[in-house]
Amino acid sequence: MAGSALRRLMAEYKQLTINPPEGIIAGPVNEENFFEWEALITGPEGTCFEGGVFPAKLTFPSDYPLSPPKMQFTCDMFHPNKPNDESGANVDAAKMWREDREEFNKKANKLVRRTLGLD
Amino acid sequence: MRSLGLPLISFGLTGAVVANAYYQKKQFYPSVVYITKSNSSMAVIYIQALILVILIGKLVKKIFFGQLRAAEFEHLMERSWYAVTETCLAFTVFKDDFSPKFVALFTLLLFLKAFHWLTEDRVDFMERSPMISYIFHIRIIVLLTMLGLLDLYFIVGAYQTTVTKGASVMIVFGFEYAILLTVCVNILIKYLLHTIDLNREVFWESKAVFFLYMELVMSFVKVIMYVVFVLIMMRVYTLPLFAFRPMYYAARSFRKALKDVINSRSAIHHLNNSFPDATSEELTEADNVCIICREEMQSASKKLPCNHIFHTSCLRSWFQRHQTCPTCRTSILEPVAPPRDTPPPPPQAPQQPPLPPFAFPFNPLHMPFQPPHPPQQPAQGSAAGQGAQQTPGASTSGTAPGASSGRPGAQPQQPPPPPPGFPGFPMFPGMPMPGMGPSPFLPSMMPFMAYSIPPPVPPPDFTGLTEEQLRAMESNAREGVESRLRCLQNIQLLLDAATLMLQQYSVAAASANVANTMSAAQSPPPSGEATGSTQYQQGPDLTTEPQPPFGTPPPTTSTPTSSSTESQPSPSSQDVPTPESNTQPSTSGTSMGSSSSSSLTNGVPVSETDEQREIRLRRLQKFATNSTTNE
C-alpha cells in the first residue's frame, strides 16, 4: 500500500481525468512523480481574464492533505491574490482594481492576449 | 563539459608533475622525495586526490542511486555547504593537529555523510513513489549495510586511538560517526516500515504511530549524544562551536517529535471520547467519501460536532496538525463544550432561526441597494413592517398599522428626533436576539433602512419552512439541539455583519454630514445625481449574482402579506385597506428615498461604495458557503 499522500493525489488525478472541471486541466508533470503538477486555467467568462489560458505549477508536500500545496503561475499574472516578490499578495493589483478598474482591465486583457500568443 | 574538463586538467597536471619529477631524478624514490618536497607539486597532487574522491563518489552514486532527483541534489548541496563551514570551524579548534591526514579524514567523513543524506532522501521518497523496483530494495539494503559497517569501523577505530593515544581530534570523528550510525539506524527503521506498508493490501493505520515514536526515540538519542559530546569537548578542549547548529536542529526535532506525540495522543483521546462513530445510515446519507483521503468510508469513521464525517485514522493525523474540522474549520475544541454547558437554547430560538440562516443573511445585503429606488423601497419596508405588525394581532384596525408604518418611514429625514428610534440605535449591534418581538422594535429599525441597515425581521410564520425543518425545530434529540446551535451561530454571524455595517454607516454618516453641507450649497439639482447613483448602486453584479438563496428573502419576509411578493412596485396598495393610508406611506417613502439617495450620492465617495460592494460580495460568499455547509 502506497503512502496516503500518494494515494490521495492519484485519486484526485483520476477524478480530474474522468470528470474534468470546466476551464481547468491539471495533472502530474510526469507520472513517476505525483507531487509535481502542472495546470492550465482558463480565465472565467465574464471577467477581464476571459479567454486567457494561464499555466501554473503546483508542488505538493509529502504530507499532502495535511499541509497545503504551493501553486505558482508560470506566466505573468496580475491579480490581487497572486503573490509577487515583495509580499504574499499583489498590493498594486488590488489597489488598481479598486481605484482604476479600467487600467486593471486593460492590463488583464494584455495578459490574456499574451497567453494566447497575440502580443 | 565543465565536469569533464576539470578532471582532465587535473590528470594532465598530475601527469606533468610526475613526468617532470621522473625526468629530473630518473629514479622512483628520488622522484617521490622531489614531489613531496615541492609545494607546488604537492598542491597538484592534493587537488588530484580531491578530484579522485569526487569521481569515486559519482561512481558510487551512479551505482546506488542512479540519477539524482532535483530535490535530492538541492538538499545535498545545501547540507554540504553547512558541513563544509562546520568543518572549517572545527579546524580552528584543532589547528595544532592540522595535517593532510586530518584533512583527508574530514573529507572522508563528508563523503560518507553525503551518502547518508542521499539514502535518507531516497527512503523518504519510497512513500511518494508509485513504483518501487527490486533494484531499489537491493540498492538500499546494500548501501545501508555498507554505511553501517563503515560507521562502526570508524567508531571503533576512533575509540581505540583515543584510549591508546589520549584525547585528540579522533574524539570528534568518533562522535560524528556515532551520529551517522544513529542516522543509519533511523533510515533502516524507516525503510523497514515503508517496506512492510508497501506489502500490505490494506491501509496500515499504526504506521504513523510507529513513525512518531521512532522519531521521538531517535531524536532523543541524538540530543543526548550531542550534549555528552559538547560536555566532553568543553572539558578536553574548548567550546565546540561547530557542533552547535546540528545540536540545535536535533533539539528542535526532538521538541517537534515530542509535541507531535502529545498532540497525537490528545487527538486520539478527543476522537475516542468526544465524537460518536458514524452510523451506516449517516454514511449513506452523506456522499460517503472522506475528504481527507478521498476514499470511501466503510468503517471506522467518526462524526464531528459539525456533522462532518471522516475516517478515524485520517482525522487522527489531521488533528495532530489542526484542531479544526477539515471541511468547515469549526474548532473541535470549542463546540464540544457548548452543547453541555448550554443545553437549553431558549425555546424561542429554534422557532425563528431555521429561517434566518437562509433569509437573514441576504436581507441585509439585499436591502441596502434598494434605497436608490425611491418609491419602492420604503413601500416594501413598510409592507414588511406591516406584515410583522399584523401578525401580533393588529389586523382589527386596518388604518392604524398603515399610519404607524407611514410615520417611521418619514422619520429618517431627521434621524435624531424619534425617541423610540434612538434607544434602538445602540442596542442594534449587541442585540441578543433578532426575534425579541417585531413590533416594539420596528420604529427603531426603520431609520436604519434609510441608511442601508435593515432590521432583521423575524419570520412571522412558518410557511417558508419545509417539513424537515419544522420537525428539526421541535425535536429534542441531538440533531435538534445541534440545529438550534447552528442557528444561534448564524445569528451571531449576522450580528457581526450588522456591527460591521454599523461601523461603515458611522463612517459614511460622518463623511456624509460634511459633504452634505458642502453639496447643499453647491448642487441644487440632486435628481440627476440620484439617478446616476441609482445605476451605480444597483450595479449589474447584484442582479446577475448567481446566488441561489438570494431570491428567497423577499418571499420569506413578506409571506404574511401573501400576494405582495409578486407585485413589488406597489405592495402597499394591496396590503393597506384604506386609500388614505396608502398614499401616506408612499409619499413619505418618496421623500425618504430621495433624502437617502441624495445623502448617498453627495456624502459617500465612489470609492466608499466600491469598498462596500467588495465587502458585501465577500460576505455573500461567506454566507453562501456557510449555508451550504450547514445543509
How large, in whole angstroms, is the Cα Rg of chain A?
16 Å
Strand portion of chain B: under 5%
What's the total helix number of chain B? 25
Number of strands of chain A: 4
Largest interface: A-B, 23 and 29 residues
- Specify the overall morphology of chain A: globular
The structure class of chain A reads alpha+beta
Number of strands of chain B: 4
The whole-angstrom Rg of chain B is: 39 Å
Biggest sheet strand line-up of chain B: 1-2
- N to C succession of SSEs of chain B: HHHHHHHHHHEEEEHHHHHHHHHHHHHHH
* Main β sheet profile of chain A: 4 strands, antiparallel
In terms of quaternary structure, the protein is: heterodimer
What does this structure look like?
- The complex is a heterodimer of chains A (119) and B (631).
- Chain A is an alpha+beta fold and 119 residues long.
- Chain A has three helices and four strands; from the N terminus they run αββββαα.
- Chain A has helices spanning 4-18, 91-99, 101-115; strands spanning 24-30, 33-42, 53-59, 70-73.
- Chain A has a four-stranded antiparallel sheet, with helices on one face.
- The N and C termini of chain A lie far apart (49 Å).
- Chain B has 631 residues and is an all-alpha fold.
- Helix content of chain B is 71%, strand content 2%.
- Chain B contains 25 helices and four strands.
- Chain B has helices at residues 2-25, 28-37, 39-64, 70-93, 100-126, 134-165, 170-198, 207-236, 244-274, 280-285, 312-321, 338-341, 356-359, 363-366, 376-394, 399-410, 421-430, 438-450, 467-474, 478-522, 526-544, 553-557, 571-575, 579-603, 606-630; strands at 289-290, 295-296, 301-303, 309-311.
- In chain B, the strands form two sheets. Chain B has a two-stranded antiparallel sheet with strand order 1-2. Chain B has a two-stranded antiparallel ribbon with strand order 3-4.
- In chain B, helix 4 runs antiparallel to helix 5 (100-126), helix 5 packs parallel to helix 7 (170-198) and helix 17 (421-430) packs across helix 18.
- The longest helix of chain B is centred in the last third of the chain and has 45 residues, at 478-522.
- Chain B is elongated, with a radius of gyration of 39 Å.
- Mean pLDDT of chain B is 68; it is low at 335-455, 519-608 and 625-631.
